[in-house]
């Protein structure tokens, strides 16, 4: 099974800050890496697919990059509505999720 | 509008069984692969199972293999998860999710249904 290591597990940042989350796969997954946002009590929402493609309707302050085993998710300017937990997910064959990153406002 | 609505969750004793349903609408259900994903209280997302569009191929996480069965009824636009031999560690919110038709991603999710395994 492919393991996903996501870091940090939590972070606190100010409104307007640039926020970066990393995800590392235990083996090469090409670009089969997605990012989801989950707000408290809600279902996850797909933000980015295939490592760097923005899902329709998702604000452009969200972005992703990487390939192979190392991936990065960035919020260019943190907004209050971005408070959530973010998960990476690989989907090379069967999906697995990273442990999540809880983003809070400082 | 794509909608996925789960039902069937509840309190069950260890060793018991439960069947979850996910009613789909707003898209051609029979054309899409579907998944179940769960989330224990205060924990992260864990993929559980996947089924292809006509139900002929299924996959499971090791933690549920041999105990859970995923199935679908395309005439009723409904996805199922039969859960047997339930354990305390199966306690979680269970989400159904649609596999994107164009990418390897889960593009729509239901609101989830809570399963609690406890005596």
Mind describing the biggest β-sheet of chain A?
7 strands, mixed
Q: Describe the global form of chain B.
A: globular
**Looking at the structure, what is the overall shape of chain A?**
globular
Low-confidence parts of chain B = none
Unreliable spans of chain A are none
For the largest interface in this structure, which chains are involved and how many residues does each contribute? A-B, 26 and 22 residues
Structural class, from secondary structure content of chain A? mainly beta
* Relative helix content of chain B: under 10%
Spell the H/E element sequence of chain B. Answer: EEEEEEEEEEE
User: Percent range for helical residues of chain A?
Assistant: under 10%
Q: How would you describe what is shown here?
A:
- The complex is a heterodimer of chains A (106) and B (119).
- By secondary structure, chain A is mainly beta.
- Chain A contains no helices and eleven strands.
- In chain A, strands 2, 4, 5, 6, 9, 10 and 11 form a seven-stranded mixed sheet that branches.
- The radius of gyration of chain A is 13 Å and the shape is globular.
- Chain A starts with a strand and ends with a strand.
- Chain B has strands at residues 3-7, 10-12, 18-25, 34-39, 45-51, 58-60, 68-73, 78-83, 92-99, 106-109, 113-117.
- The mean pLDDT of chain B is 98.
- Classes of the chains: A mainly beta (106), B mainly beta (119).
- Chains A and B meet through strand 4, strand 5, strand 9 and strand 10 of A and strand 5 and strand 10 of B.
Provide the fold topology.
The complex is a heterodimer of chains A (106) and B (119).
Chain A: E1 4-7, E2 10-13, E3 19-25, E4 33-38, E5 45-49, E6 53-54, E7 62-67, E8 70-75, E9 84-90, E10 96-97, E11 101-105
Parallel strand pairs in A: 2-11
Antiparallel strand pairs in A: 1-3, 3-8, 4-5, 4-9, 5-6, 7-8, 9-10, 9-11
Chain B: E1 3-7, E2 10-12, E3 18-25, E4 34-39, E5 45-51, E6 58-60, E7 68-73, E8 78-83, E9 92-99, E10 106-109, E11 113-117
Parallel strand pairs in B: 2-11
Antiparallel strand pairs in B: 1-3, 3-8, 4-5, 4-9, 5-6, 7-8, 9-10, 9-11
């Amino acid at each position: 099974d492919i393991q996903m290591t996501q870091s940090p597990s939590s972070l606190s940042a100010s409104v307007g800050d640039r926020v970066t989350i990393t995800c590392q796969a235990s083996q090469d997954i090409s670009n089969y890496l997605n990012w989801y946002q989950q707000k408290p009590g809600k279902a996850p929402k797909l933000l980015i697919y295939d490592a760097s493609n923005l899902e329709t309707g998702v604000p452009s302050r969200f972005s992703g990059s990487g390939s192979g085993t190392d991936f990065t998710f960035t919020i260019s300017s943190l907004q209050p509505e971005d408070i959530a937990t973010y998960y990476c997910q690989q989907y090379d064959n069967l999906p697995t999720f990273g442990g999540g990153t809880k983003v809070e406002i400082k | 509008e794509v909608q996925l609505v789960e039902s069937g969750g509840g309190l069950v004793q260890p060793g018991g069984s439960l069947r979850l349903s996910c009613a789909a609408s707003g898209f051609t259900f029979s054309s899409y692969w579907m998944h179940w994903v769960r989330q224990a209280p205060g924990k992260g997302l864990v993929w559980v199972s996947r089924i292809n569009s006509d139900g002929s191929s299924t996959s499971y996480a090791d933690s549920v293999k041999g105990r859970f069965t995923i199935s679908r009824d395309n005439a009723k636009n409904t996805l199922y998860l039969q859960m047997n031999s339930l354990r305390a560690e199966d306690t979680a919110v269970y989400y159904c999710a649609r596999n994107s038709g164009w990418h390897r991603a889960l593009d729509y999710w239901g609101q989830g249904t809570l399963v609690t395994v406890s005596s």
